[in-house]
Task: inverse folding
């Protein structure tokens, strides 16, 4: 038995598209020189429509401090950083639905949802606030339509307490209705009919019979908005204009234009233009934020919490507005995002929702399993109509003389629509490509949020980019709770797992493939991995990379011929047969192979004592990287310095560099990001330095939600005085536990299915031993990693940025976005018995975009 909770269903679009020629001519007059409406080139000087009264043109705007909107901005920001595509969400719709869950919950479940929404601890204050919001939204007017409806459907086994029913009805205008969920077809028809009626047919089929299997209760919150611009666009003046999708990619797009008095500002803070476009009566308005540069939108979303304060600078100007028509639908799966924000108990077996079912007996205890929102928007010349749907599934737990401003939205921009009285955000979104109609954002799990793009792979780029998801998971589960330095090579681990994957089947195959984010089809994931492995061979003036896979197998066993073929052809592996009875000889052969492949940096990976008498095969991977800095540190500037670790100051060798480097302060992570390029520019090291001295653990926990592909666009060339430690690390780790935590579990049990490796036999994996050597100094970086997998067992004017605390680093390919090495440094090279020199008093230029973190 489960509760399927559709938390929000709303609708937004700009004007019904089915307006007639007569409607347009009544407002704007007939088109000049043409019998019908056609797209026309822009006129020399767009005039304010003369048939509008002075009252129509008046528009009072007085920005005020808004409350209960912190969640709205955070939600928008989190969705925005996951990709660069169009998106549309309704923060208010989701918030109203979650507020009902707050009323139905107790204990930690109640506290978490309430805290994430930023609600007052006094329930009466919360209820009064939401009652005011709903009353405002339900105000009737002849100039717009806004229908808000909430309903809780309950099955025969669910009996909400009378107190909860009264609160839902009195404060949230939510009615409770009985429904027989056992008759799924009829129940779905009834639900869809109610939703379709409120959204005027925009969402005719929210649920189907399959969605209602086992459902005991369903909560719906619907919102429908239809309005008209106060200053409408003349369709006769709509013209084709280029919209910049990327710097070198444009699309011809129908642009609307008008010239009128609007509240407007050219924001210095965001380097962007902000325009308020009111609807008739002034109860609602759309705000458009257009960055002045093509790459400026990520910076706006990165600091979106400051938008509300920036609206206070809007003043009335005569503005020449040119914005594109756009229409798209969007689907977002939000359960992972809500977990990230702190709503976790609601998804666990310990969830508590007694308000939804009296007594919470074992048969009707519930937990949230899915949160989904569907939405859409159409933007054209006359006005507005809006639609969106969010599903939360709960299951059983078992003037002319003024300067004229110009706004041309010919590049990706942000918009939001708010209720001007309560300052609540009805909808927020981004337009990256006005020509696209469909979009989706999905968070299937808490740890798979980051998005990456690879431009250079013909046809396979998007699939290969998913390999990066594994990298952040691996770092988190390896480093989060482990003190000291951590150094891992996700590239090396992936190479080893790829060879195991080829011989696995059933649950074991599914777990490895899922962790690596590979296609479910063998032909496809073989191509993905082969392409990936081909990228790990580089020999240029500035960078050398060498990757090697080796399979060492018992001479007493017969390998599957298909497996041998794939290992050699796809995974570029060397194959050697050995007598595992002589463990000294086996370890000597394998260690010599690793020594050669890592240029002597890793002398060995396996000891004779580590080789089980039952061992049948060892799979090994060796990865070597050597890079020279594009801008080297001057050794003369290297001197002792203080590195803070767990409250103690340790003397370490600090290098210093004065150069223009890509740099950003990433508010989402409360950390500074700086990029050090290797010679040639194809590879780089990214340092992430937490603003707080003890912020390393929080930084690592947050990385799954703000990964490298999202950080990179935020960095800009900046004059930097960088002070950072030299470090040399030899690191060894049994990766079995981190991989188990990443849900690769059956591989390490007797239930492992490796039936594709041998003819007539199968095996299991005991452990994975991973060794990494890395040295970072003034000239560059030398790194090597080795992973071994053994089947029974398995082995395998400057910004001053002073890196004087534990930090995270990545070495990556800039063209492909692939991470070769990653880790955290908590204990750099210690200099014994040397006093720390006081820092020289160097005047630093202040840069508002990068808050001075330490000085």
Result:
């Amino acid at each position: 038995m489960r509760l399927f909770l559709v938390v929000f269903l709303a609708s937004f679009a700009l004007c019904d598209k089915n307006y007639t020629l007569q409607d347009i001519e009544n407002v704007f007059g007939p088109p000049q020189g043409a019998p019908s409406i056609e797209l026309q080139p822009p006129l020399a000087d767009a005039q304010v429509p003369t048939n509008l009264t002075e009252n129509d043109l008046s528009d009072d705007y007085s920005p005020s401090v808004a409350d209960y909107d912190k969640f709205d901005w955070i939600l928008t920001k989190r969705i925005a950083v996951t990709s660069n595509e169009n998106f549309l969400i309704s923060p208010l719709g989701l918030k109203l639905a979650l507020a009902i869950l707050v009323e139905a919950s107790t204990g930690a479940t109640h506290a978490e949802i309430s805290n994430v929404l930023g609600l007052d601890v006094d329930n009466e204050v919360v209820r009064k606030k939401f009652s005011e919001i709903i009353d405002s939204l339900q105000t009737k007017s002849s100039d717009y339509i806004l229908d808000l409806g909430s309903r809780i459907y309950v099955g025969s086994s669910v009996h909400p307490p009378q107190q909860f029913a009264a609160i839902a009805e009195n404060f949230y205008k939510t009615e409770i209705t009985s429904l027989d969920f056992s008759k799924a077809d009829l129940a779905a028809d009834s639900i869809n009919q109610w939703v379709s009626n409120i959204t005027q047919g925009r969402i005719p089929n929210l649920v189907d019979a399959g969605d209602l299997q086992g459902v005991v209760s369903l909560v719906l919150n619907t919102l429908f908005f239809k309005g008209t611009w106060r200053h409408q666009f003349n369709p006769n003046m709509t013209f084709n204009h280029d919209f910049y999708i990327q710097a070198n990619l444009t699309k011809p797009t129908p642009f609307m234009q008008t010239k009128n008095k609007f509240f407007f500002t050219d924001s210095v803070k965001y380097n962007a233009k902000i325009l308020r476009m009111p609807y008739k009566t002034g109860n609602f308005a759309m705000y458009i934020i257009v960055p002045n540069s093509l790459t400026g939108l990520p910076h706006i979303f990165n600091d979106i919490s400051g938008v509300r304060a920036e609206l206070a600078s809007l003043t009335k100007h005569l503005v020449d507005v040119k914005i594109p028509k756009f229409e798209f639908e969007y689907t977002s799966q939000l359960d992972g995002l809500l977990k990230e924000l702190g709503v976790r108990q609601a998804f666990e077996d310990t969830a508590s929702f007694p308000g939804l079912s009296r007594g919470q007996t074992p048969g009707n205890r519930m937990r949230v399993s899915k949160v989904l929102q569907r939405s859409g928007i159409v933007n054209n010349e006359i006005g507005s109509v809006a639609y969106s749907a969010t599903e939360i599934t709960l299951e059983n737990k078992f003037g002319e003389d003024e300067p004229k401003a110009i706004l041309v939205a010919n590049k990706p921009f942000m918009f939001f629509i708010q209720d001007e009285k309560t300052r609540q955000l009805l909808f927020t979104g981004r337009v990256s490509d006005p020509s696209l109609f469909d979009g989706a954002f999905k968070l299937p799990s808490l740890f798979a949020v980051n998005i990456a793009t690879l431009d250079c792979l013909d046809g396979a780029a998007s699939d290969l980019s998913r390999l990066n998801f594994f990298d952040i998971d691996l770092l988190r589960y390896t480093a989060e709770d482990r003190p000291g330095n951590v150094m891992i090579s996700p590239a090396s681990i992936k190479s080893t797992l790829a060879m195991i994957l080829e011989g696995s089947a059933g649950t074991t195959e599914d777990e490895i493939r899922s962790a690596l984010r590979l296609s479910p089809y063998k032909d496809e994931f073989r191509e993905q991995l082969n392409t990936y492995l081909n990228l790990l061979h580089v020999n240029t003036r500035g960078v050398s990379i060498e990757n090697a896979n080796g399979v060492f197998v018992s001479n007493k066993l017969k390998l599957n011929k298909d497996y041998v073929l794939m290992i050699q052809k796809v995974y570029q592996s060397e194959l050697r047969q050995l007598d595992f009875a002589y463990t000294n000889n086996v370890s000597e052969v394998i260690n010599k192979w690793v020594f050669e492949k890592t240029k002597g940096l890793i002398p060995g990976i396996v000891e004779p004592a580590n080789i089980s008498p039952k061992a049948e095969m060892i799979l090994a991977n060796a990865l070597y990287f050597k890079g020279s800095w594009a801008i080297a540190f001057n050794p003369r500037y290297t001197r002792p310095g203080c590195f803070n670790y767990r409250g103690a100051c340790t003397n370490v060798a600090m290098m210093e560099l004065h150069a223009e480097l890509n740099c950003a302060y990433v508010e989402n992570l409360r950390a500074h990001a700086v990029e050090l390029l290797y010679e040639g520019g194809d590879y780089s090291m990214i340092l992430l330095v937490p603003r707080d001295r003890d912020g390393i653990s929080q930084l690592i926990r947050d990385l799954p939600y703000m990964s490298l592909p999202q950080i990179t666009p935020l960095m800009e060339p900046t004059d930097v005085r960088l002070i950072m430690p030299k470090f040399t690390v030899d690191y060894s780790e049994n990766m079995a536990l981190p991989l188990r935590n990443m849900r690769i579990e059956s591989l390490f049990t007797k239930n492992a299915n490796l039936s594709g490796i041998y003819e007539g036999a199968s095996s299991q994996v005991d452990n994975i031993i991973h060794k990494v050597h890395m040295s970072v100094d003034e000239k560059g970086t030398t790194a090597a990693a080795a992973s071994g997998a053994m089947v029974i067992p398995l082995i395998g004017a400057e910004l001053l940025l002073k890196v004087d605390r534990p930090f995270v680093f990545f070495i990556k390919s800039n063209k492909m976005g692939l991470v070769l090495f990653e880790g955290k440094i908590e204990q750099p090279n210690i200099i014994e018995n040397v006093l720390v020199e006081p820092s020289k008093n160097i005047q630093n230029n202040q840069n508002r975009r990068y808050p001075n973190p330490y000085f």
